[in-house]
Structures are given as C-alpha cells and as structure tokens.
Amino acid sequence: MEAGSDMTKEAGRKRETHSGTEMAGGSRRTSRKITKKTEYPSVLDVMDAAMNQVLKEQMEWLVARWNAESPDATPLVVEALTEEQRESLEREHLAREVLIGQAYVDKMAAEDMARLKMEESNPKKDPDELYYQEYRENWEWKYAEEFGSFEATTRIPTMCFTDKPTKPGVTKPRRSMQIFSVKVEEIYGDLRWPLDVFGIVAVRDDLDHHRNIIFERKRDNCQTLNEEDPYLVLTGPARAPLTLFGPMHFDITLKVKCSNELEDKDLSLLGFRYECCESINYQASKGEPTVSSCVSSQKHRSKLSTLELTCGIVVSSIEATISVRIVDGSWPDGFSGRFFASTASVSHMRVLLLNIGDEDTPVVATDGTIELSRRVVSVESFGELRVNAAGWLGSQQIDREVFFQPLKSGRSSRSLKVGSCEMEVTVAWSLFPLCYPNISSPKNG
C-alpha cells in the first residue's frame, strides 16, 4: 500500500508540475506564463482611420476654397467650424458636384453621338488623334471657362512659401509626384535610330490644371535619342505636382524631325491619367494609418512609339528647390558625371539634375551658380534628401554626397567638393497650399 501511495503522490506531483494544479470540479489552474500578444489595428479600423483622414483633408480643402472665393469675408478656420457651417460647406460642394456630374453625363452622351457620326463619315480617322481630341475637349469643357487656354502653362511658382510666413491652415505637407524618367521604349513603322525628337511632355494636377512642363524642345533644338540611351532629358517640373483628390494627367505631343518639315513624323500623342500604384497599402504604425511612398512604371503606346514613364508618389511631402554654386576654385577640367537627388525612402530611384559629358562643361553664372537641368524635387517631411555628384575625374572615380533634413520653410546649405572645386548645395524648402487662388483665370487677369 505504501508503495502504491508513493507512486500516486509522485504522479500527482508530475501532473501539477506539467499541467498546473488540478482544482475541484475538474478545473485546472495553469502555471504557464502567458505572454500578451501585441494587438494591431484591424483592417476595418485602419480603413476607417484612413477615411477619416480623407474627410479631414476634404474639409480643409473646402474651407480653403471658400476663403479663396470670399476674400472680403472673415476667413473660416477648420478647427472653429460649427456643425451648421460644416453642413453648409458639404451641401454647397455636393450641389456643385451634382451639377458638374449631370452636365458631364449629358456632354458624354452628346460626344458619343458626335464620335459615332465622325467615325461613320471618316472611318480611317487615326484613333490616337481621336483619343487626344477627346482628352482636350474634356479638359476645355471642365476648366476652360475658369482657367483659360488648354496650352497655358502653370503660373504657380516654386518656393511659394520659402520666405513668406503663412496663416495656420493655409499650408501643409501634401502628397506629390516625383517624375524620374520618360523613355522611348519601342519605335514602329519606318522609324530608325537615332531619332531627333522635339515637342512637349507635361503633367497636370488639381492645383491649377495647367501644363507643368517636364520636357520641351523646339524643332530647331531637338534631342537626339539612340537605342543605347533612349531617355528624354527632363527639365521640369516647374513646381512639384500635387495629388490632391485625383490622379495626375499627362499631356504628351512628340515628333521626330525629318529632312523636310512636311515630312516630320508623329512619335507620340497622349493624354491620360497616371495612377502611380496599382494598390495603396496602408501600414499600421502606432495605431495610425500611414501610406508609404511608392514608385511604378507605365507603358503607353501611340502613333509610332511606346513610351515608358517612371514616377512615384511622395507622401506628406515638402517641395525642395535645389541650387549648386561654386564658392572656391573652378570647375575641374576633365570631370564627367552626373548630379542626382534622391530620398531615403526610395533611395534606389534618383532624379537626374545634370548630366555632364566628357567634353562638356556646365553653364555657370557670374555668381558661380551652375545651371541645372532640373532643380525641383519632393521629399517626405519626416524623411531625408540626398544630393549626389558621381562620375570620373581623369582616372579617379568620384562619388560625393550631402544630406538634408527637410524644413517647413527657409533654406539649408551644405558643402560638396569635386577635386579642388568647392561647391555649395542649397535647398529652398516650401510647404504646399491647401488651395491656390486662380491667378491664371482671364477673369482674374
């Protein structure tokens, strides 16, 4: 009996050690240590928070538009709005949208009928020209009365708020587009490399709907493209393009110069909207939804080519306008290379600011400022901007880089040396307006 009792006690101890203490009624108190799992917001919570952010930004935009349209009235402030004022702004916006929507439906129906008649009367009409004509007519129907000519370029300058203090609620970091490259991916028909290309590539945003030119060449100043380097040398944007509530639109008319102007060929004719990413991924960060910056490429075929555009969306961005000035020494003879700008978030993608060939020297002003091909980029307000000079000085490989933490306004400067030449890289910082007065409208002069 004692041996059996001892075995029973031992089995009980083992059971208590491995399974916890057995309680009356068959329940068991566990002795295991329970680690509390980290709880992340559910998908619905994240999406709800994202929608609230969208509604908040929309109200900010409605208030900014009301203030811009009512300069003599006491400005509205989002944080001080009454429920009645919010409802009034939303009703007014909804009424506008209903009118615009109905007019758009009527116009589309009329255009469909007109297009059918046109195609019946001229079945050989180039579809690329039909699509571009439709793109232009839609723009003119929506914006011509308020914004003027379809060909007009943006008159909103860069560095709007670098030196000017702004009232609360007027400016903030915004989502913007970073344009990395435009490439002639393929050519068709009887075209052969190299190509002498001229024309315009422009982007349009919701801030003023005008052309923000990123490439422009006249017929007497073509860029020669070859199969080994089929990229357009971009010279813009003139200011950072914004994504307020909708996608960007690209407006492209490119031609190939031939021996006779009458024989010039249409390389590309496009008007289309650019959705940067196929999907937007919301990431949980301390319980708050954030959208990460992204990069994507799209190919568009028209006329005698396929163009590949590579662009990115920079979230919560600040506009950075870059300048480079020689402050000591002179430009080093024999230096060939490139100046780039990039952001830490997508460091593998770089914006080409200036390309200097083996026999080239940059254009330098009397004050030592180097003329860059491009100078406006965007960077996250919480991120980092990098400006890089890379190339060769004789047989020596050069790679110099300076870093900048974004500011809401003002300027930052850093020293960069290539050989015995010391340069000062300066970045002018500017927030974006929530709404910009229409300075381009004929009604406003």
UniProtKB/TrEMBL annotation:
<dbReference type="Pfam" id="PF20241">
    <property type="entry name" value="DUF6598"/>
</dbReference>
<feature type="domain" description="DUF6598">
    <location>
        <begin position="176"/>
        <end position="427"/>
    </location>
</feature>
<feature type="region of interest" description="Disordered">
    <location>
        <begin position="1"/>
        <end position="36"/>
    </location>
</feature>
<feature type="compositionally biased region" description="Basic and acidic residues">
    <location>
        <begin position="7"/>
        <end position="19"/>
    </location>
</feature>
<dbReference type="InterPro" id="IPR046533">
    <property type="entry name" value="DUF6598"/>
</dbReference>
<protein>
    <recommendedName>
        <fullName>DUF6598 domain-containing protein</fullName>
    </recommendedName>
</protein>
